[in-house]
Write a structure and sequence with these properties.
The protein is mainly α. Helix content is about 55%, strand content about 0%. The longest helix is centred in the middle third of the chain and has 19 residues. It binds iron/sulfur cluster.
Amino acid sequence: MDGPDKPGHDGTGGGAPTKRSRAAPAPAPAPPPIPRRNKAVANAAAAVHGRTVSPWSDAEITEAFTRFEAQDPEPNGELDHTDAFTLLVAVVLSAQATDTGVNKATKGLFAAASTPAAMVALGEDEVAHHIRTLGLFRGKAKNVVELSRLLLERHAGVVPQDREALEALPGVGRKTANVVLNIAFGVPTIAVDTHLFRVANRTGLAPGATPLAVELGLEARIPDRFKLHAHHWLILHGRYICKAAKPACSRCLITDLCRWPDKNF
Ligand code: SF4
């Protein structure tokens, strides 16, 4: 519990404390509120530092990705899927949810419907029932059924390998399109989620105030041979090592390259 400040009792009514309050010592001033070290704060702090830390040199970027590659040559995402359509649905469902939570929800959903036609036939209420453990599940169910209908109407039921066509589907933004293009079609896109945004800013890899600025910075600076897997290396690094509240700097394989001034040892 963070113990948020409570309003003082003096003068707030609800009784007749006049005699006692005259004799009692003045209450100590309330301590200032303690800032929460949540992800948003950590990311915002990283972005602020990102504007002041010196960006990595080309040699440092190459060194960092050489280490990521040596540690995990073929990194994989953690969303369960069997093809481009189930990947697309899983990524749409992953907004503000953990991959573990999405995988639990899609186990039953994909058993019931794993194609656009089957998803439309299943219908919004049944989809919502399968994914009811996820936040915003009603809106997500609506998007999944509608994007399935549009895939049938516009693309013969096939997930298009085209950013513009993907982003025209409900619930699909730039990040989701980048993930689908990368994993399903092998396009070297770099999807910037909360983890990549934090890591890019903290380290000095590609500082930027917005996810798009970070994405463009990463695309411009990461050598081509590392681009296909860069998204996975960085997301896994952010999820398990360079965590928002307590980065595990003592276990980090790029700690000597990282510019973050608040390392946690
Ligand atoms: S040294 Fe710490 S802050 Fe820097 S990348 Fe590694 S875990 Fe993150």
